[in-house]
TrEMBL record:
Pfam families: Rab3-GTPase_cat. Residues 11-20 have a biased composition (Acidic residues). This is Rab3 GTPase-activating protein catalytic subunit. One of its GO terms (molecular function) is GTPase activator activity. It is found in: Cytoplasm. It comes from Acer negundo (Box elder). The keyword Cytoplasm applies. It comes from the Eukaryota. InterPro entries: Rab3GAP1 (IPR045700), Rab3GAP1_conserved (IPR026147). Keywords: Cytoplasm, GTPase activation.
Length: 947
């Protein structure tokens, strides 16, 4: 190394003398050129010493275009210019460059190299515009690499940046050297070079030094080709969606735009919105493996061959993750509903949000848009449209749906919630207007006794649902009972005069046949008959006309009291009454009154407040118990309290010996009389003094169920329900709407057909459990600001699942006959998308990274892919001339890549002169990479020479 030393002294003369003695010139690096070579050599030696593993640890940059490609960079200076030298290397070897299905760097494909150097000026253009400068840079790198004993190829970008041109050099040892050159034609490509025949002759011209016609000679050339096709975009205005199963070409595509269908018209969410197809299209790579070509005529035949003759097909799905722009779907509207919930705590009644006069947030409310009355009317008509039958509420219901306290998807309230999130922009004011009009319509159905649409009018109240659904179900039942009472009253009044004579005549016939007196209570018996269960109407009559039972036929030991038995559903096995030794009859009884969740809670609170839980519980059930006792007395006129206990509560009757009271007993009546009465007694709790049950028994009149007051008063309960709906607090309404809207939206998506993809099924299951956990505070009416934040995060989770489900449904439809492809594409995209869902490590998240996948297509799957390339219309095929050939259903390749190569044996050729024995083998002497279309052509040539 050059060095100079300088000694500082106080005297000028001594300083000058010392400088003359100690200063010397270092002539080992006499020029800046040599110093530049030395710097390049030092950097290359360091990279060689480190190796790929250490370079990665030192911060090598990964290239997104290639899986295994990395680079390191070093800055160098030569004279007044700065250069950047980059070393590209692979961590894992990915096979030959001719394996088109692998991902390689651009220069790797062009020149057939694996690792290489690129040196370029640190300028705006990044290229060397001066040819002597480029040659000088290559010479410097070649000398430095030779000094390092490195065989790395080196490249320098030259000419204009748009030409993507390079020159390069590589030392293959002590004998051979490879030189590289690449250039590009960006427009006006010669017609000859658009076809395989002309490209073949271009390559042959590089080594065939003959003035004769090249097309008439035979030159054995290695050839491999890769053609890339692209489907027409699915959102093109001239394209109609073609299903994967449709193997015929679509015709008449230029019809009326009103008849065009969207890709998701048959998907369950299409009723509410049209989703953008996440699959934007497909790329297809057809590869012809390496083969030997001998003439341009053979190349012309290859150009006319179909892509189906290619050895390998590789599919490239073009999938958009929807991150650009605002995506409209259930998730976006649910987030607006959550914001409406946040505002709902600011008012006491829904009407306050409509008027916006005294509301603190009136300024915000004025800016909220309410749809026009015509839109409101259309929504209400669609919402309250009466169907032919009650929908199946279990349709689309997930196994975990009931963990969410909402409402079934097809019911009235769930449909109201789904309409609400799309009504206007789902603001609190629009929701208030829709709710008020909705309740007004519900009241009309009640006042007119019209069946409530989309609600079951029978069965028990489903307490696993939200309270509004329970109230609407109760209201639907009340409407039906109200209608029945009105119809019965009209029928009875209208037929009273006409049927009185017939009833009296019928009574006389019965009296003559039995010799018994029957009270004149025909009207009551008729109502009882109408209200009894189907198939058992006759048992409610005083004396059944078509019943041959012994107790009803006037036997010698019958009593007159037995003949006025009413409301009986039949004898209870062989059980007998304790005092009269007559058969015990089971009465028709009223059903237990239906109660909603808040009614049950009210009763439980009353029980908790009471000191004597049993007595007070019995008091709460007094109406039911009294009705059962009255019906039992009417069916068994001679019964006592003990008889009722034996039938109603057998556990409170203690037998001293076997009585044979089970319905299956076959003991004769005479045998029972011999041992009568049976030995038994009431239990301790029933025999206590002042027992409430006995008091109720003593006060209960003997009335059949037809004469009893209904336990459920439909008029009273209906009005209470409407009062609840009209005075419901806004936050209580919005809490139930949020729960129901999330559940209904998820159930709608759950109906989509996606081919049973395991990852998608797992994500849907997780979504329901996440919703159940996040919505639980709303179900308990404990919503806080933290709950609102949890709901906002839930909307993000819902959006991720909705995106994945849309993709899964789209892939399933397109690959209906090739499910392996849809499963492979979705699985790869799922792994790519996981970090964006917050389920991957932060290092894996790369927002800029696009989804890239290459999937090899099997032979039996090619037809499915071919069907996706529908015939272009006249507008889409505007360029019919200058076609490159190899058409696929009328589509020419958007990119054609060809590699020509010529190999030569060193032994026996001009390369053999003074060639060491180690090189006595076949080497690649010429290689040409061609890439382009009819408007763009890039050619890269590498030549091996003997120096």
């Amino acid at each position: 190394m050059a060095s100079t030393s300088k000694v500082v002294s106080s005297g000028d003369e001594e300083s000058e003398e010392e400088e003359e003695l100690e200063h010397f010139d270092d002539f080992t690096l006499a020029s800046s050129w040599e110093r530049f070579i030395s710097e390049v050599e030092a950097v290359c030696r360091q990279w060689l010493a480190d190796g790929p593993k250490n370079l990665l640890e030192k911060g090598a940059v990964h290239l997104g275009s290639s899986k295994n490609m990395y680079k390191v960079k070093s800055e160098l200076k030569y004279l007044l210019k700065s250069y950047g030298m980059e070393y590209y290397f692979e961590v894992n070897k990915s096979g030959k460059v001719t394996d088109w299905d692998s991902i390689f760097h651009d220069l790797q494909l062009c020149f057939g190299v694996k690792e290489f150097l690129v040196i370029a000026p640190q300028s705006a253009s990044g290229v060397v515009l001066d040819a002597p400068e480029a040659s000088k840079l290559l010479s410097a790198i070649a000398i430095a690499l030779s000094n390092c004993s490195s065989l790395w190829p080196a490249f320098v970008p030259v000419h204009d940046p748009s030409r993507n041109a390079y020159i390069g050099i590589q030392n293959l040892g002590t004998v051979f050297t490879r030189r590289f050159e690449a250039d590009r034609i960006c427009s006006q490509v010669p017609v000859k070079l658009m076809h395989l025949e002309g490209l073949y002759e271009l390559f042959v011209s590089k080594f065939a030094y003959s003035t004769l016609d090249i097309s008439m000679h035979i030159f054995k050339v290695r050839f491999t080709m890769k053609l890339t096709y692209q489907t027409l975009p699915y959102d093109d205005d001239d394209i109609r969606e073609v299903d994967a199963e449709n193997i015929e070409s679509s015709e008449d595509r230029g019809g009326n735009s009103n008849n065009k269908t969207q890709w998701d018209d048959d998907c369950p969410w299409s009723e509410w919105y049209s989703a953008e197809d996440p699959v934007k299209g497909f790329g297809l790579i057809a590869i012809w493996s390496e083969k030997m070509v001998e003439s341009s005529l053979e190349m012309a035949e290859l150009e006319n061959s179909s892509p189906h003759e290619a050895e390998k097909w590789i599919l490239l799905p073009n999938i958009s993750d929807g991150s650009k722009g605002n995506r409209i779907g259930f998730a976006s509207q649910l987030s607006l509903l959550v914001e409406a919930l946040d505002m709902s705590f600011e008012a006491q009644f829904m009407e306050d949000f409509v008027s916006a006069v005294e509301n603190p947030s009136s300024d915000n409310l004025k800016s909220m848009v309410i749809p026009s009355p015509t839109v409101l009317d259309r929504v209400l008509k669609d919402l309250l449209l009466q169907g032919v039958k009650i929908p199946d509420f279990s349709k689309g219901e997930h196994k975990s749906s009931r963990y969410i306290k909402g409402a079934p998807l097809e019911c009235l309230f769930a449909q109201f919630c789904l309409h609400s999130i799309w009504f206007g922009n789902c603001n609190i004011r629009a929701i208030a207007v829709l709710w008020i009009e909705f309740v007004r319509e519900i009241r009309w159905y009640w006042e007119e006794s019209q069946s409530l649409p989309k609600m079951p009018s029978n069965g028990s109240i489903d307490l696993s649902t939200c309270l509004i659904y329970q109230k609407l179900q109760m209201l639907a039942i009340c409407i039906e009972k109200k209608r029945e009472l009105n119809e019965d009253f009209q029928d009875c009044v209208g037929s009273n005069d006409q049927s009185s004579a017939a009833i009296k005549e019928d009574d006389r016939v019965v009296e003559e046949s039995t010799g018994l007196q029957i009270p004149d209570d025909n009207f009551d018996r008729k109502r009882d008959s109408l209200l009894t269960a189907e198939g058992l109407h006759e048992s409610g009559m005083a004396i059944p006309r078509h019943n041959g039972k012994p107790e009803n036929t006037g036997s010698t030991d019958q009593k007159p009291s037995e003949c006025i038995r009413r409301g009986s559903s039949g004898a209870v096995g062989s059980m007998m009454l304790l005092k009269s030794c007559q058969s015990m009859h089971a009465p028709f009884t009223q059903e237990s009154p239906l109660m909603t969740e808040d009614m049950h809670e009210e009763r439980l609170r009353a029980i908790e407040v009471s000191s004597g839980s049993f007595d007070f519980s019995a008091q709460l059930e007094r109406d039911i118990l009294s009705a059962d006792m009255s019906a039992f007395k009417a069916a068994n006129p001679d019964a006592v309290f003990e008889d009722f206990i034996r039938w109603h509560s057998p556990g409170d009757w203690e037998n001293d010996e076997s009585e044979g009271s089970s319905p299956s007993g076959n003991l004769a009546v005479d045998g029972l009389k011999d041992n009568w009465p049976p030995r038994g007694r009431l239990s301790q709790r029933m025999s206590e003094h002042g027992n409430l049950w006995r008091k109720i028994w003593n006060n209960a009149p003997a009335l059949p169920v037809s004469e009893q007051k209904p336990l459920l008063d439909p008029n009273r309960e209906g009005e209470k329900i409407l009062h609840y709906l009209e005075t419901l607090r806004p936050h209580q309404l919005l809490e139930q709407m949020v729960c129901t809207a999330f559940r209904a939206s998820a159930d709608t998506l759950n109906q989509a057909s996606f081919g049973g993809l395991k990852q998608m099924t797992m994500k849907i299951d997780q979504l329901y459990l996440t919703m159940a956990s996040s919505l639980r505070p709303l179900q308990a009416n404990t919503g806080t600001s933290e709950t609102i934040e949890d709901l906002r995060r839930l909307c993000v989770v819902f959006e991720h699942v909705e995106k994945l489900l849309t993709l899964a449904a789209s892939l399933h439809r397109k690959f209906l006959h090739a499910p392996r492809l849809s499963e492979a594409i979705f699985s790869d995209y799922y792994n790519y998308y996981l970090p964006k869902m917050g389920m991957g490590s932060p290092e894996e998240v790369d927002v800029q990274k696009e989804f890239e996948m290459k999937l090899q297509v099997r032979n039996h799957e090619r037809q499915v892919i071919s069907n996706m390339f529908t015939l272009p219309t006249a507008n889409q095929s505007w360029r019919k001339v200058l076609s490159m050939g190899n058409l696929l259903n009328g589509h020419e390749p958007i990119l054609r890549e060809i590699i020509f190569s010529m190999n030569d044996h060193v032994n026996g050729s001009h390369y053999a002169t003074h060639t060491p024995s180690v090189h006595q083998k076949e080497i690649e002497t010429y290689r040409m990479y061609i890439c382009g279309t009819s408007n763009d052509l890039r050619v890269a040539l590498s030549v091996t020479s003997f120096d």
